[in-house]
UniProtKB/TrEMBL annotation:
Pfam families: DUF1996. Keywords: Signal. It comes from the Eukaryota. This is WSC domain-containing protein. InterPro entries: DUF1996. Residues 36-281 form the DUF1996 domain. The lineage of its organism: Eukaryota, Fungi, Dikarya, Ascomycota, Pezizomycotina. PANTHER family: DUF1996 DOMAIN-CONTAINING PROTEIN (PTHR43662:SF7), PTHR43662. It comes from Decorospora gaudefroyi. The keyword Signal applies. Residues 1-20 form the signal peptide.
């Protein structure tokens, strides 16, 4: 019981989201190669990727092809989806380049945020991130959610904030997911990240309800205004599962070696980190999982939809791509080699990077250049979450918070959604309709004095107290749940397990 009779207030519903999710381990990559049938169909990709999921991934890949895969590197044997991100490499002082060891494959989280969530349709594909970005336009670190401005709520800004590079040190409390939107410098990782770096990226989850793809593979999707929840922009009212990728890289293997880390697209900053997804689920099975996998543990073993069809780690690790494209026969993306596969130059920024060219390339002739001046990224000190993030044996697991309070939502205005991906462009604030506000959240106009939460029938409700001309008493319970959280009031961190 919490009395608020000491001030005049009214109660308004902010949001209701279930705490349901599952995380899909994909314990081994099916390939490390220049393959990207979304951005570079029919030819060699401009840069290398670490690929996971269904084995029938080719230069041009359809939904039906993925469904015909002989195997999958993911735990549920009927998830034939394709998941990929850039790979991380180390450039030695002499220019020799080699891939960094990837630990535990990939974790793909399916977070069920919002209401009436629909399965990804047949032929659905999407891209998160921008390979050419080399800077960050927001405040460092992120301000608390309650302090977000209209600029923080643009699609461009939300996309930048969807990235995270979690410094792993298992003898310390875990950092919050997406606390740091850039790859730390090598000196910082040598000193602080004893168990490597976990790269993280959130995909948009608001769909226009009609297009399974778009010209830039982004415009059919949009982020909700809290990235991992909140309000969808007008015209993107269909909620899909919220995808969140994690990959862990053993950067400590290069401790005290002179050189630096760089992503396979030639990005040493991390700002250009990105990820791709092609749906390979049986649609009815995925919809059943969306409606059934409500256990807060997030374990696939705890969902009856997956019962009896889960692969062991050795089975996952045996799955490899069925046929490497001939155009890639001379590639060596693992190294050691004289440069990055695809002959990719290292581009430091902060200017928008030059576009990379797809297609066949000779062995690397562009010797990577190491930065000789100041680091291209800022420094953020190690910042632990309030409680240690629950991890699996490989260190995967979105960090956990025991939330005492939930900050008020930032003020929202009604303008059009921007789909620009250029670093110079100004993205506009996502549109918010009255219906959307009633469904998911309310605008935090002047007069909101506090917020609280309560849980009913598995749904977490957030309540805003707003000054009006009457006095009321509010009954509410503070949520302390090990598997849901909002932003840390001090650091603006967020994560979900």
């Amino acid at each position: 019981m919490k009395s608020v009779a000491s001030f005049t207030a009214a109660v308004a519903l902010l949001s209701g989201t279930t705490n349901a999710f599952w995380r899909m381990p994909c314990r081994e990559r099916i390939g490390l190669m220049r393959l990207d049938p979304i951005v570079d169909p029919g030819t060699a990709s401009s840069h290398g990727h670490t690929l996971h999921g269904g084995s029938n991934l080719q230069e041009e890949t359809t939904y039906e092809m993925l469904r015909d895969s002989n195997c999958t590197s993911c735990q549920f044997e009927d998830d034939k989806s394709a998941y990929w991100t850039p790979s991380l490499h180390f450039i030695h002082e002499n220019g020799k380049t080699e891939v960094v060891e990837q630990i535990g494959g990939m974790l793909a989280y399916y977070l069920l945020l919002g209401k009436d969530i629909k399965a990804f349709p047949k032929g659905f594909r999407m891209l998160a991130g921008d390979s050419r970005l080399r800077n960050f336009t927001g405040a460092v670190p992120d301000p608390p959610l309650a302090a977000w401005t209209e600029e923080d709520l643009t699609q461009f800004s939300l996309g930048q904030k969807s990235l995270g590079f979690n410094c792993l040190h298992y003898k310390k409390p875990a950092e919050g997911a997406r606390y740091r939107h850039f790859l730390p410098t090598k000196d910082y990782m040598d000193e602080n990240c004893a168990d490597g770096i976990r790269a993280e990226i959130f995909f948009p989850s608001c769909w226009n309800g009609k297009d399974v793809d778009s010209d830039n593979h982004k415009d059919h999707m949009a982020y909700p205004n809290m990235i991992d929840g909140g309000v969808c922009p007008e015209g993107f009212d269909t909620r899909l599962p919220s995808l969140f990728y994690e990959t862990i890289w053993n950067t400590q293997a290069f401790k005290d070696f002179p050189g630096q880390f760089v992503w396979s697209n030639g990005d040493p900053t991390g700002y250009g980190y990105h990820a791709d997804f092609i749906n390979g689920w049986d649609i009815d099975t995925l919809q059943s999982a969306v409606e059934t996998c409500t256990d807060p543990s997030g374990k696939t073993e705890d969902c009856p939809v997956f019962s009896g069809a889960l692969l062991s780690e050795p089975e996952m690790m045996q799955c490899k791509i069925e046929s490497q494209p001939k155009i890639l026969s001379n590639d060596d993306c693992a190294g050691p080699a004289d440069g990055l596969c695809g002959n990719v130059p290292v581009q430091y920024g902060p200017a928008y990077a030059a576009a990379l060219k797809p297609g066949d390339h000779a062995e690397p002739t562009v010797k990577p250049t190491l930065a000789s001046s100041a680091a291209p990224v800022p420094t953020l000190s190690y910042a632990s979450a309030r409680s240690k993030g629950a991890t699996d044996a490989y260190g995967g697991g979105i960090s956990v918070y025991n939330v005492e309070e939930t900050p008020a939502m930032p003020t929202l205005t009604s303008t059009s959604v921007s789909t620009s991906t250029s670093v110079e462009a100004e993205a506009e604030t996502p549109a918010v309709t009255a219906a959307a506000l009633a469904d998911d959240a309310i605008s935090s106009d002047d007069g909101i004095v506090s917020t609280s939460t309560y849980t009913s029938e598995g749904i977490v409700y957030e309540v805003a107290i707003k000054e009006i001309a009457v006095t009321v008493t509010v009954e509410a319970k503070r949520r302390r749940h090990a598997h849901m959280h909002r932003r840390d009031r001090e650091h603006g961190l967020l994560g979900r397990h």
